[in-house]
């Protein structure tokens, strides 16, 4: 039986790398999508064919599509805690999350999991909490 491929965005982050490890322990092939695949290789190694570091920039529909193609499942654990330049809460928590969801749907992905690091509240004084409400 061929191990299912699961693409994980945000795989090099605090929560994401734990998700990768757990999926791997359960027999999945994990496609570690990152803007910097070399960081993923340094974190997870290069010797295991079931751990595949690929470029996956959530700011780019083409990059997201390439990272998702052929995957059975997708996990989006990308998060932003400090805005800088074009990296805003809205661009990451809303626009990029939507991009991942749209591409997952376009490729017929069986399961999509979106993980938010904190509770979302459209009425919150915190712009980060507001941004996670979509």
Describe the structure.
Helices cover 37% and strands 18% of the residues. With 134 residues, it is an alpha/beta fold. It has a single domain (5-131), classed as Rossmann fold (3-Layer(aba) Sandwich). A five-stranded parallel sheet has the order 3-2-1-4-5, with helices on both faces. Helix 1 (16-25) links the parallel strand 1 (5-9) and strand 2 (29-34). Helix 3 crosses helix 4.
Q: What is this structure's SSE topology?
A:
Elements: E1 5-9, H1 16-25, E2 29-34, H2 37-44, E3 51-55, H3 61-68, E4 73-76, H4 89-106, E5 111-114, H5 127-131
Parallel strand pairs: 1-2, 1-4, 2-3, 4-5
Helix pairs in contact: 3-4
Please sum up the structure shown:
This protein has 134 residues and is an alpha/beta fold. The chain contains 5 helices and 5 strands; from the N terminus they run βαβαβαβαβα. Helix content is 37%, strand content 18%.
Which segments are poorly predicted (pLDDT under 50) over 5 or more consecutive residues? none
Described by its quaternary structure, the protein is single chain
Helix and strand pattern: EHEHEHEHEH
Measured as a percent range, the helix fraction is 25-40%
Largest sheet: 5 strands, parallel
Structural category is alpha/beta
- Estimate the mean pLDDT confidence: 87
Give the radius of gyration: 15 Å
Count of helix runs: 5
The CATH topology turns out to be Rossmann fold
In terms of DSSP E residues, the strand content is 15-25%
The CATH first-level class comes to Alpha Beta
Q: Trace the largest sheet across and list its strands.
A: 3-2-1-4-5
